[in-house]
Every structure is written in C-alpha cells, then in structure tokens.
Amino acid sequence: MTSAASNGNPSQVPSDLKERLKASYDTIAPAYNAWTAQHSASRLKYLAQTLELLPLSQHLRVLELGCGPGVPVTRKLLSYPTVRVTANDISSTQIAVARANLLGTNEENDRNEERLTLVEGDMSALSFADASFDVVLAFYSVIHLPRTEQTEMIGKIARWLKPGGYLLANFADSAEEAIVMEKWLDEKGWMFWSGWGKEETLKIVGEAGLQVVVSEVSKDVVDASFLWVIARR
Prior knowledge:
By secondary structure, the chain is an alpha/beta fold. The chain is built from seven helices and nine strands; from the N terminus they run H-H-E-H-E-H-H-E-E-H-E-E-E-H-E-E.
C-alpha cells in the first residue's frame, strides 16, 4: 500500500490491535464515512465487474467484510431482489449507522430486513459453513489485519465460497509488516495497516484454491495504490 500512511512509524503488531481498531472506528466513524465517500467510484467499479460474472436472476448469498455504514456497496447489493447479504464490521458505531441507513423507515429499505444480516465483530473470529456464499467482498478491510491473519483470512474465504463463487478484495500493493498512524483523520484515530505486497498476495490467493480473474494495481483518489483482486473458487 503506497500512500501518505507510509509516513507513519512501522512497529510490531500490538497485542490489543483489534480493540484499538474498534475504538478508533467507533470514534472516527463520521469523519471516516465522509472521507471514504471519495472511494465510492472504485468500490462500485469493481463490484460491477464482479456482479457481471454472476447469475443475478438466481438467489445469491454475499458476505461483506468491513461494511462500514452500508453505503454504497451494501445498499447496491440489496437493490437486487435475489441477493441476501451478511454484512460484518468491527465497529459498533458503523453497524449502528448501517442499520439506520439500510433498515430505517425509508421506502428504499422495504424488504431489506428479510435479506440483510448485520454482524458486529472481528472478521477473523467469524465462522461459517463451507460453501456458504456466492461472493465475499472485502473493501479496505483485510488490510487492517496482521499479515499472518490475512493469509488465514484468505484461506477461510476460499472455504466459505461455493464452487464458482468469487472473492473481491483490495490489498496493499507493497509489502508492509506494519504501518501505524497515531492520529489518522482525528486526534483519536489510531490506525494500523499491513500487507504482503502484490506478488505474495497473489501467491496466497492461488494457494488457497482461488483462480485470479482480475489483478490490478490502481491509484486511489487519495494518493494511495492498492491491489484489486477478483478471484474465482
């Protein structure tokens, strides 16, 4: 991941990483949601590419890791009446915002309750039966895991996908064991990122039993580069 975040001081992974990430996102959610709206075009671009590979006339199950406030991706998924979504986030605040955005009384939220399950918690602690999902999405979320957990997470995702299902995720384009920023977007916005880099990430995806369909390094609107991957089970 090449970005201004690289100016943070690399350090070892703190033992309370997940607690600190949750506390930060609970605090900075409003600022983050306004800031990350800049990424909507990238998210929707790769989502559209993935959805083109799927039979949207059939019932599909989607897992979204790091759903944030539920817009634009979760809302876009729910616009397809055949799609059921399990949306996960580590932040209590973000889950509450997603619930308000997607399960509120607005007319556009009609019948969402029947097709949306919101799950708060660390993605690494999730457990699903093998072959549970047609798609697993992870936008700007796996990069918050330590690198060893990223490897384990990709393996879990591969098992959770049905044969012929797809992973869509973005990863750090460069190898970084730990990038830490003490004040990201807010005085209380402590943040952590890591990544294996392009070549090692693609190797890990392949070793998990996934066939890479799309592999692109793309520069973000906020002057950061990410590896975007669409891979088939």
